[in-house]
Amino acid sequence: MKKIVTIILFVILSTALCAGSADTKLLFDEANTLFQEANDAALKDSLKSQKLYQNAALKYQYLICMNNRLTPVLLMNLGNAYYLSGDKGRALLNYYRATLIDPLDCDIQHNLNFVRSECVDEIEYSFFDKIMEKIFFFHYFSFRTRIILFGVIYSLMWLTLGTLLFKKIKHIKVTAFTLLAISLVMGFSIAITNMQLFSRIDGVITANETQAYQGDAYIYNAAFMTPLHSGTEFKLQEKRGDWYHISLADGNSCWIPSQDAELLKDF
Amino acid sequence: MVYIRKLRVRLLVIFFFICCVVNAENQKEIALTSRIDASSFYTGVPFLYTILIDGSDIVDKPNIPEIKHIAVKLLNSKILIKYKQKGFELRYYMVPEKDGDLTIPPFEIIINRKVFMTQAHKIKVMRPESIPGLKISVELSKKQCYVAEPIEVIFTWYSALPFYGYRGVNIDLPLLNNPAFKVIQGVNDITSSSSNSIGLPVSNRRIIAKRGEVDIDGDSSEFLRFTRVLIPMKAGDFKLQPATLLTSYLTPKQPQSSKKHRRPYRPKYPSYFNNNFFDDIGNQPYQRFYITFNSPTLEVLNIPQESAPLDFYGMVGKCNVETSVKPTKMRVGDPLTLTIRVKNYSFPSAITLPPLSYSKSFSSSFLIPAKQPLGALDGHDMVFQRILRPLRTDVSEIPQMRISYFDPETGAYSATVAPPIKIEVLPAETATTFDAELSGDNKLVNKIESNPEGIRHNVSDPDKAFSNNFITFRLLFAIFAITPPFLFLIVLIVTSNYRLQRNYPIKAVAKFAARRFYRDINKVKIDKNADNESHEFEITVNKIDNIFRRYFSEKFNIQPHAHTIVDLKDILKNSGVSSQTVDKIKRIYDECSLNRYTDKNIEGVVFELKDSTVKCVKYVENRRLNA
User: Domain check: are A12 and A67 in the same one?
Assistant: First the structure.
């Protein structure tokens, strides 16, 4: 009797799992079809294509949230659908989320950089940051480039050490030492980026335009002469009711209504 | 020595002299003067107050105290350099707010860390006269509008006195210089060639106004009117600054009573010059008039952002669009002219069109030159002409032209669409210079460059989309970090013997002495059935002797057959080998040599000898002795 019950349970469970998997694939196909239709319509009717992109984005989002399929590829697809539907803020947000999972994917990195370049708000980095960028220029290479550079330099270092086993020449010793120093620096740079990966930014403004205030109420004066726009990245300092206290890349801080922004971790 | 002392004194004197000269240069007198252009003014008429500093350009900008009944604003401050003489100029814009005798009090200015005082100035402010029938009005076509929604502003100057008597007219319309608004000319604006047009000085520009007559409360009045289109650039409640008119009136020598004579100037010249408004009064007796108009208010609302279509570029107000193309049959690369006519828009002069290259439907099928002609007004329509060049033969139509707009009447977004137009694109027939340069000796090479613009493709493969089996950077980093040292270790181990042999051959021989001993000793076979007479045992003992001796010679870098047990004894004892083992070795040496010198039956010794040598070598090896 027990055996029969176990068998029945196993059959039901495996059927449910197969059905779930089939549903996911079906949803994914539907989202892709909508995206393709939107691509086709974009050349004829931009309004129709916008709606189709929005529908595709909804499907991708459903797949990610409801089916718990948080993969970099799905997040990139979602970002693409948002971008083409005109929502740069959410596109950027999802590219960032994808980068957190897979920071080496070239396509995600490219899309992220491109959408960042399209953002309206231009926030100047502080003088200190600019100097740091000049000095530690290598730290501002792409993550992938730095890892490959590290791999090459580090391997070369071991190769020169290997050569030293057979020939003890002064030049080779100096080369090995130099390569060791460079690979250490690159290693530090990678380690710092790894540490900062989850702490560089906390969220992105998703509303087309939002007024930043000097306090957590509409009664306060505007923090800046112009509003902030979608795609502007920020670090969250405090969450108070329906307001976020945020700081921008240039060090300025302000308050924005929470409905105008989304946090990277809110998924 | 005396000479050096004298030289020092001389150098000191020269240094002191230079210091005195430099100090004297620094102490050069600083002169401060303040001035105004005249001593009598009219209320509301701005005048300039200038402070000139001679002798220094290190000036802390003064905080001018509030002057009673005079509004003050800093106009500019600049450093003056003339004939190597340093100077500084501060210019203030002052507006007397009340008539009577007013004083501009002296105030402090810090120049080169020293305090200086300006002079006091007394001015006489007169109230300009105001007469009935002289008025100006500024009317807005709407009290409430949306950002970017064009509205009409109508300015009218009414006068019961004939306009030809006015001189030195100064109309200030602050609205024209308000950064919150964009002001453009309307479609129906009167042109300079029109018979009743007249040039009017408004806010430092000459504007063509329309002249007319009107009855106000039964009295006949003349008026000058012009309109402008106002486009609010940002939302908010605006109370527009009041328009002002300051003018002088020179009573005509012969009173003009009839209407006929009240309009003596007909446009013999272009309307810019057909009046006296820009003339100076000179020394003739005149009346001064000043009037102001209550400021109108305007509420500017934000356009809702939520439901804005993707292609909305900021157009507010209903319109219709029509397109036509000429020619409809062309070859690839040939130009075609697309005419876009925007109709039924309230203020057609305010219409702008975004570049067609922004639309993917156009940019994917046509080459669109960046520079395109501006739109032109055709009646009440705005007409844009765009030159396009089809890129391929499969381009079969001009895509639909869609203009999204926000309709302020319904408060919703809408769009007007011109349908697509069929065209026929034939293959290019004639070879262009580019085609020619693609062949021949000096052919052009198409250098492929990657395009950083745009986003990259979606992934449609479900296996890739749902897979989390990508190389994480941590894995990659670990691979990069571990693989080279691992390979290095392998090389280190594999080549250790080679490197030892190469760098320390004696040590290498010592290291492998035991291995060679075991190999050789294992090869030694003792035949129990061998005949004692056949010297087989003797040979075996010799072999063992050779192997045993060679082991020690290799281990301790001594000659194999030239060393005695006495030599070896010292070495072994120094190396910490126990005396028992040394004795055993000695016995083995003795037994081996015994074989050479006696005919004693050694059959029994051979079997023990082999085992003893192996034990001794094992012991020595365990002590990890090296040469």
Answer: yes
Sort residue B272 into left (φ over 0), alpha (ψ -120 to 50) or beta: alpha
Closest by CA to B127, choosing from B95, B98, B159, B166, is B98
Q: B16 to chain A, minimum CA–CA distance in Å?
A: 44
With a CB cutoff of 8 Å and minimum separation 6, the contacts of A44 are B361, B399, B400, B420
Angle, helix A72-84 to helix A88-101, in steps of 10 degrees: 170
* Residue A122 maps to a domain: no
Same domain, A190 and A207: no
Which chain A residues are Cβ-neighbours of B474 within 8 angstroms?
194
Q: How many domains does one find in chain A? A: 3
Q: pLDDT per residue over B444-491, tens digit each?
A: 666 777 777 788 888 888 887 777 766 677 777 788 888 889 999 999
Residue A186 lies in a domain: yes
For the domain made up of B31-126, give the CATH fold.
Answer: Immunoglobulin-like (2.60.40)
Say how far apart CA A231 and CA A242 lie, in whole Å. Answer: 20
**Closest-CA residue to A224 (of A129, A87, A123):** A123
CATH of the domain at A218: 2.30.30.40
Q: Which residues share a beta bridge with B389?
A: B367
Q: Residues A76-105: what's their mean pLDDT? A: 90
Of the listed ranges B215-224, B269-278, B520-529, B614-623, the one predicted with least confidence: B269-278
HEC letters along A16-67: HHHHHHHHHHHHHHHHHHHHHHHHHHHCCCHHHHHHHHHHHHHHHHHHHHHC
* Distance of residue B178 Cα from the nearest chain A Cα, in angstroms: 17
Q: Determine whether the interchain pair B402/A102 forms a contact, defined as Cβ–Cβ distance below 8 Å.
A: no
Give the per-residue pLDDT at A131.
87
How far is residue B229's CA from residue B222's CA, in Å, rounded to a whole number? 24
The hierarchical CATH code for the domain B322-426 is 2.60.40
CA atoms of A50 and A82, how far apart (whole Å): 9
- Nearest chain A residue to B404 by CA: give it: A47
Q: Could you tell me which of B123, B113, B116 has the C-alpha nearest to residue B35?
A: B123
Q: From CA B291, how far away is CA B161, in angstroms rounded? A: 14
Q: What is the ipTM of this complex?
A: 0.71
Domain enclosing residue A234, as ranges: 203-263
Q: Which of A263, A139, A126 is nearest to A193 (CA)?
A: A139
* pLDDT reported for residue B532: 58
Q: Select from B365, B456, B483 the Cβ nearest to the Cβ of A111.
A: B456
Q: Which of A24, A28, A155 sits opposite B484 (nearest CB)?
A: A155
CB B606 within 8 Å of CB B613:
no
